[in-house]
Amino acid sequence: MNKALVTGITGQDGSYLAELLLARGYEVWGLIRRSSSFHTGRIDHLYKDPHEQPRLRLLYGDLTDGGNLSAIINEIQPDEVYNLGAQSHVRVSFDMPVYTVNTDALGTLRLLEAIRLSSRPPKFYQASSSEMYGKVVETPQTEKTPFHPRSPYGCAKLYSFWQTVNYREAYGLFACNGILFNHESPRRGETFVTRKITRGATRIKLGLQDKLYLGNLDAKRDWGFAGDYVEAIWLMLQQDKPDDYVVATGESHSVREFVVEVFSCLDLDWTKYVEIDERYYRPSEVDHLQGDASKARKALKWEPKVGFKKLAQMMTEADMKIADRERIIGWREKAGQ
Question: Is 131 part of the annotated catalytic residue set?
Answer without folding.
Answer: yes
